[in-house]
Amino acid sequence: MSNIEVQIPSLSSVTRGINYPANYPLPSSDNINGYLYNGTKGSFIAKANSDFSVTASPDIFEWKQRPDNGLITNQEPVTLILKVVIYSIDNTGQTPFNTSTMFEVSISSSPGQTTTTNTIVDFIEYTTVPNPTSPIALGDPISLDFIQGLRYDPTTKSFTLRFVPKKLGVKDIYKGIYYIY
Amino acid sequence: MSQDQGNTNARASLSYSPETAIWDNTNVIIPDANSSCLPLNNDGLSSPFNINGNNPYQPLEGFITGEDDFSPALGLIFEFNTVDNDHVLPYTTVQLEGTLHALYFGGGSTPASDFFKLTWVLNLYDPATSQVNLFPTNSDIYINYGANVLNPTTCTLSYSSISATSKKFSIRLNKTNLVNSDIAFDIRYLFI
Questions:
Q1: Is A52 close to B36, i.e. CB distance below 8 A?
Q2: What is the ipTM of this complex?
Q3: DSSP A144
Q4: Distance of CA A25 to the CA centre of its chain
Q5: What does pTM read for this prediction?
Q6: CB contact under 8 A, B26 and A46
C-alpha cells in the first residue's frame, strides 16, 4: 500500500501579496468590521556575491501585503520567521563550499506600529565545527547581518530581507523557509 | 521563478515544495521527479543560482503521520535523485519537529507524549561522501507529558551516496524503554 501524496508546488512571484486566499471579517464593538489576513509560508533561495556594501545592498525579498481598506481593525500578519541555511563558496572549482550554518530568526511588530521594525525577537544558530578538510576556511560562517537586513514596514505592510554581508571575499547562497503570520 | 533584482550579483526566488505523507512502515519517501525541490538536469553554468557549477536543492518541507512500534526504532528514509556529484549543493540541514503519543509502564498503561525538535547540520561539502550515525546537532523536547517517549540523544541520521545520481538520508528515531505501546506520530520534516 502506498499512501504517499506528492503535491507539485506552484511558483509565486517575489512581490506577490500574502492576503490570499481569503480574508475573514472580524467582529468589532462598533459594528465596523475589520479583516484578519491569512498567514502564509513558502521557500526562498538567493545568491549574492560579497561585494555589496551595507548602503548599496538591494532588497532581495519583499513579502508585501495588500490590505484592501484602511480600517484600523484590520489585522495583518506582523511576524516573520525564517529558517535559513547559508552556504559560503569560494571562487575556485566546482564543488568546494564551506560548512553550512542554519539560523532560525524572527521579527515581530504590532498592528498599530507606525515605524519600521527591525527588532529580532528570536535567534537560534545551529552549526557544526568547520570541516577541517574543507577547501576554504572562513572562520565565521555568519555572513548575513540580520539586524540590518530584516525589516517590517508598517506603511506598506511589507517584510523585506536585504543582504548585508559581514564577510568579504566569498559568494553566498541563502535558502530556507519563511513563515508569516 | 527567478527574478533578477537589477543587480547582477543578486538573484532571488520564492517557491515552495510541500509534501505530505502517511507513513505505512514500508515506504521510502521519494520526491516526485517533477518536484521543484530537485536540481534540474539542464541546469548549466548559467542557471540563476549556479555558483561555480553548483546548483542547490530547493528547500523542502513536509509532514508525516502514522503509527509504528518503534522496534527497535522508527526508520525514516528520504531518497533524492540528483544530477551528479559535481554540480549540486546537497541538502545539509535536516530538521524534524512534531509530537509522539504512546502509553508507558507505571500506574498501569498511562498516556505519555512529547513535543520535540531534532536538528542535524552536516559538514557535507562533498556530495559523494557518506556519513553515518550522526547524532543531532541540537535536540529539544519542549513539552513532555507522562513520561519521555523519545530518546533524542540516541537518534541518528546517516547520509549515503548510493550513486552519483541517488542520495539517501536515513533517520532512526529511538524510544525510551518506558514506552509500552505503539507510538503515534505527527512529524514535520524540513530539508534545506
A1: no
A2: 0.80
A3: B
A4: 27
A5: 0.81
A6: no
